[in-house]
Design brief:
Elements (H helix, E strand, L loop, with lengths): L6 E7 H11 L5 H9 L3 E11 L9 H9 L3 E6 L1 E4 L5 E4 L3 H11 L5 E5 L6 H9 L3 E6 L10 H6 L2 E4 H8 L28
Parallel strand pairs: 1-2, 1-6, 2-3, 6-7, 7-8
Antiparallel strand pairs: 4-5
Length: 199
């Protein structure tokens, strides 16, 4: 059923999505991902949340974050904290969940649908809270690998579960193409208010 007036937002748990697509053996084309969900109604906001370590600040993930920031995504990053465990091993600690939940609750009154790209069961209570406010929540993850990347309690709580394997043809990045900061000028960051057909 088509609903051109539906207002929606995408919330991407970057670390979780990366692990999911890596398990499935493909990479996301984030330009195509935006286009895919613009076709579901009016895309009010597209968030991308990720943790950064000190060495990542200017290396592997920085080009992607910069590209997203210039091309229609609201990027929220958080630095990991390093600590030493009781056995004397250096470990990294960090979680973007609180930031994601706060943004989702603040936006809830302005949207009809929220698409959550994460399989983390810790988000089940957030999904329930959004639903109580009248927001329909779709969870995007996968059951197509062993073990499944989506927690059973999150999948059950969602109004709709979308296996990202079903979206692969629409959102997969060509392995021969790299999204870098050089792509900035080719894409418009203005996606608010665009509408198209609904699934």
């Amino acid at each position: 059923m088509s609903d051109r007036s539906s207002k929606l937002a995408t919330f991407i748990d970057g670390t979780n999505l990366h692990a999911t697509t890596k398990a499935l053996g493909f990479d996301i084309n984030y330009k195509r991902l935006l286009q895919e969900f613009r076709s579901c109604g009016t895309l009010v906001r597209a968030f991308y949340f990720t943790m950064l370590t000190e060495d990542q600040e200017f290396v592997s993930i920085r080009p992607l974050i910069d590209w997203l920031d210039y091309n229609g995504y609201t990027v929220i990053t958080k630095m990991t904290k390093e600590f030493v465990d009781p056995a004397g091993h250096r470990k990294l600690k960090g979680d973007i969940g609180v930031e994601l939940a706060v943004q989702a609750m603040e936006l809830a009154q302005y949207i009809d649908q929220l698409i959550l790209f994460s399989g983390d069961g810790a988000f089940r209570s957030l999904v329930a809270a959004l639903q109580r406010r009248g927001v329909r929540v779709s969870v995007v993850s996968t059951m197509a690998c062993q073990p499944p990347m989506v927690a059973d309690e999150l999948r059950r709580q969602a109004d709709v579960f979308i296996d990202i394997k079903e979206l692969q043809v629409s959102v997969e990045r060509d392995p021969n193409h790299r999204q870098t900061q050089r792509d900035y000028r080719h894409l418009s960051p203005n996606f608010v208010g665009r509408q198209s057909r609904s699934h």
